[in-house]
Amino acid sequence: SPTAPVVPDMCAELWRSAAGVLDANWTGDYTVPSRTLYPHQWSWDSAFAAIGLAYVNPARAWRELRSLFAAQWPDGRVPHIVFDPEIGEDAYFPGPRFWNVPAYNGRAARGSTGLVQPPMHALAAWEVYRHAAAHGADAVQQARIELGWLYPRLVAQQEFLGDRRDAGGGGLASIVHPWESGLDNSPAWDDALASVPADMRLLDTYQRRDLDVSDVTHRPTDTDYARYLGLVESYRDGGYSDTGLAERHAFVVECPGFNSLLATAELALAQIAGVLGRPVEARRHREHARGITAAITDRLWDPETGFFHALDVRSGRRTPARSVSGLLPLMLPDLDRDRASALADAARSPRFGLPAPSYDRTGPAFDDRRYWRGPVWVNVNWLLRRGLLVHGRHDDAERLRQALVRLVHHNGHYEYFHPEDGSGLGSPAFGWTAALCLDLLA
Length: 442
Ligand code: 9WN
Known about the structure:
It is built from 18 helices and 9 strands. With 442 residues, it is mostly helical. Strand 4 and strand 5 form a beta hairpin.
C-alpha cells in the first residue's frame, strides 16, 4: 500500500534485490540498463549505476566510469551510447552502422553514438569518492587515483557542453536531439519537434527493436522515431559538428534539467578539485555554477507560470509544457529563495505530487503509460529529492524517499511506473532503479 510503513525487513529485502540486479546487469566493464531493451553502455545510466555500486562494490563503480570515459571523443563529448562490439548490429536500433561515427582515440570506428546525455558523471564520481572511506584505506587510496584520472576528462566534458554547445549564446548548453535530454518523448519537446520533418519512409528501411521487447503503448510513437532518425541524420551528415547549429539543425533546445545537471557538475568538480589540491580551479568551478544558475533563471523561468520551461533556441520561444525537468533547478544551491519555494510547492501540488510523474498530471499531453509523458521514473525523483534537501525541505525529501522505497519494493525494479497505481512499466531489472534504491536505503 502507498502508506505502508517502511520497515527494516522491507529495506533488507529491497537491498538484496537491488544488489542482485546490479550483479546481473554487470558486463565486466559496465552495467547495462536492461538486458533485454538496452544491451550496451548508456552514458547517464552508468553514472547512476556508479552511485549504487559505491555501496556494494566501489572497484566496479570506478570501472564503470572509466569504461565510459575511455570512449570520450577528442572534443570532450561523452557519447550517449558506447556500443558493445561483441553484440551484433541488430541488438538495438539505431545501431553503430546508422551512427557511422569516425574512428577516434584509437577506437574502432562505429564504437559509439555522437550525441550526449545529461552530465551526471562529476556528481557520480564525487558520490563514489565520498563513500570510499566505508570500504577501508585501500578503497580511499584507489578513489584518489581515480578522481585524478577522471578530473581532466570531466572538465573536458563540461567545456564541450558549455562552449561548443552554447548555441543560444546565453551561457547554457543546448541539446540537439530529444535523446540527449534523457527524457526522450517528453511533451517539453513537442513544440520544437513540430517543425522537424517526420519522414516515415526512414522507418521502412529499419526495424525498431524496442517494440520486440516492450509494449507499443508504453514507447515513443513511429512519428517520434521518424523525427529522431531524421535528426540523427542531420547531425551525422554535418560531421557531428556544432558550428552554426541554430541555423542548420532543426532541433536546438535549452532544457532546465540538463542545465541544472551541468551546474551541479561544476559544484561536484569544485569539490573534486579541492580534494586534488587545486583551490584556484575549485573557485572557478563554483563561479561557473553560479553563472549557469543565473542563465537558467534568466532564460528558462516564466514569471507567469512560476515554473522553468525548455527554450527553443531557433524560435526563441519557451514551451508551455511543464515537465519534471522544470523542477530540477531545485538542485541548485544558488537558486533564489522565492523560485526555490515555488518549485517545492509545485512538486507537492496536484500537477505533480511525490513521487513526481514525468509530466504535469493536469497537462493536455499527460499519458499515464507512455514513457516520459506521465510515468514515474526513479532517477529524476532521486534528483528531485536532492533538490528538496538542498533547499531545506527535509520532510518532503523524507516522504519522497519512503514513497520510492515502497514503490520499488512493492512493484519491482522496473524502468518506470504507472503514476496512479504504481505498477511497473517498461523493462524489469532496470539498472538505475536498482542502483538508486541502494542510495535511498543507505
Ligand atoms: C535512447 C537507457 C536509456 C536512458 C534514457 C531513456 C531511454 C533510449 C531509448 O533509455 O532512451 O537513448 O532507446 O529509448 O529515455 O533516459 O538513458 O536506459
